[in-house]
Amino acid sequence: MAKRSMGLGRGFESLIPTDLVEAAFDPTSQEDAEVSKLVELKLDEVVRDEAQPRKTFGKEGLQELADSIKEHGVLQPIVVVKSGEKYQIVAGERRWRASELAGKETIPAIVRTLDGQTRLEMAIIENAQREDLSPIELATAYAKLKEQFNLTNAEIGKRVGKSAQSVVNTMRLLKLPDEAKKAMQEHNLMEGPMRPLISAEPEVVKEVLPKLVEEGWTARKVENYVADRRKKSSIKAVKTVSYRKDEMRLEEKYGVSVHVRGRGVTLSAKNDAELVKLLKKL
User: Fold this and answer.
1) HSE (side-chain half, CA atoms, 13 Å) at 130
2) Of 10, 36, 126, 262, which residue has the fewest beta carbons closer than 10 angstroms?
3) What confidence category does residue 18 fall into, taking pLDDT thresholds of 50, 70 and 90?
4) Quick one: pLDDT at residue 21?
5) What's residue 239's pLDDT?
């Protein structure tokens, strides 16, 4: 059956990459280690859960995933529970189907008992209801319920006493750059001021983080700063495009590289001979 097995812990993320769940921010990593094993299962040892409502999978998307698996393997293990002589899928049926399509014989899997799966789910929910949990830990708990327990945003919200939209908003924090997530954890930064940084450019995130830590910027101040930077970037981009035709015209006329920046025009010669020709033309 299993070619390898190991407990899960703080180093779990390096062994099992996931889309959202990060071990560094997982409040239930210890409970997970007690009930889980990472193994390699034969595909014919795995069966789908007939109670799962999703019965069909898009052929095109499934083929794309199969092609990816052929090249890179299955990067995120499925989650299964023992069911007689087989292992029933809890999460990851699409990866299992795509692996079959890719001609694979085995698939990495997180194996739990049904009791262990239930206990872990309860532990995650209890942790998600704690008041001392950081926003990034809370986001990780939600993501774990979504990825490893097949719960919808609405179902997660119902279990923890939050709206589905609140769950979505919190999980979006996991899209922040690593440095931003670490700063949230280390400096107890709140969710509100961090949200505008989710879609911000990396350089803007680097500029804002020290302001959040040292000056305690509010969500509104971060929003305004990000919006202002985005507006300036858009204006700069428009100017660059609008001047490009002029740059090309001047480059053709003078035979040198031309750049329009602000209110200045720079003509750049590659060598002394080119410079002499340019000076004669001016």
Assistant:
1) 18
2) 262
3) low
4) 67
5) 55
3-class state of residue 276 by DSSP: helix
Angle at 81 between CA 78 and CA 83, to 5 degrees: 130
- Interaxial angle between packed helices 219-254 and 202-215, expressed in degrees from 0 to 180 and rounded to the nearest 10: 150
Give the Cα-Cα-Cα angle 271, 273, 275 (nearest 5 degrees): 70
Tokens of 175: 């899209």
pTM: 0.69
Q: d(Cα 242, Cα 120) in Å, to the nearest integer?
A: 58
Separation CA 210–CA 229 (nearest Å): 16
Amino acid at 126: E
Cβ atoms of 78 and 95 closer than 8 Å: yes
How do residues 228-274 score in pLDDT, each as one tens digit? 888 876 655 555 566 777 778 888 888 888 877 767 888 887 777 77
Give the mean pLDDT of 53-68: 83
CB 100 within 8 A of CB 43: yes
Each domain of the chain, given as residue ranges in start order, spans: 12-167, 176-228, 240-281
Q: The dihedral of CA 107, 111, 114, 118: what is its sign?
A: negative
**Helix (H, G, I), strand (E, B), or coil: what is residue 215?**
helix
Condensed to tens digits (0 to 9), the pLDDT of residues 159-203 reads 999 999 999 999 999 999 989 999 999 999 999 999 999 988 888
Tokens coding 282: 């001016």
Query: What's the rounded Cα separation, in Å, for the pair 73 and 75?
Result: 6
Domain covering 12-167 in this structure, CATH number: 3.90.1530.10
Active-site positions read 93
Q: How many other β-carbons are positioned within 10 Å of the β-carbon of residue 64? A: 12
Structure tokens at 262: 């602000």
- DSSP of 94-115, one letter per residue? HHHHHHHHTT-SEEEEEEE-HH
